[in-house]
Request: fold
Amino acid sequence: MAKLPEARFAISALVKLDCLVGPIKRADAMRQDAYTDMFEVFETLSMPEPVYLRAAQFRARFGLKTPDALHLACAQHHRCEALWTNDDRLHVASHGLARMIPQAMNAGQARCCRCSSPIVMATLWAGAASMSACAENV
Reply:
């Protein structure tokens, strides 16, 4: 993130929930602490009622699962410039907001504790296929 000082990076509380389920379930305090420390790097975006109402539209129109619809609605609500994801359906539903994380970035990386999807640890973003983070210009 040091390479883009003019950009702000954010996650929602839903991203935090997604990350922490696995370590809590396995009583993996070290992984839980690592995620908690990582959260401090990001701004936390609120999820007021309009986010949930917009997410309902995404679920109905595009068949997104509730968490994915909420990620997209939250990014739109906060006028994020990009929503980073590995989910093709989220990419299609976002009409250009979602940016697909190159699969090459996933090669050889650790696995998500919740869904076993590859974890991306890039210079500009950290996340897993089941969660999203957005970059918002200042």
Notes: The mean pLDDT is 75. Strands lie at 7-12, 43-45, 82-85, 98-100, 119-121, 126-128, 133-137.
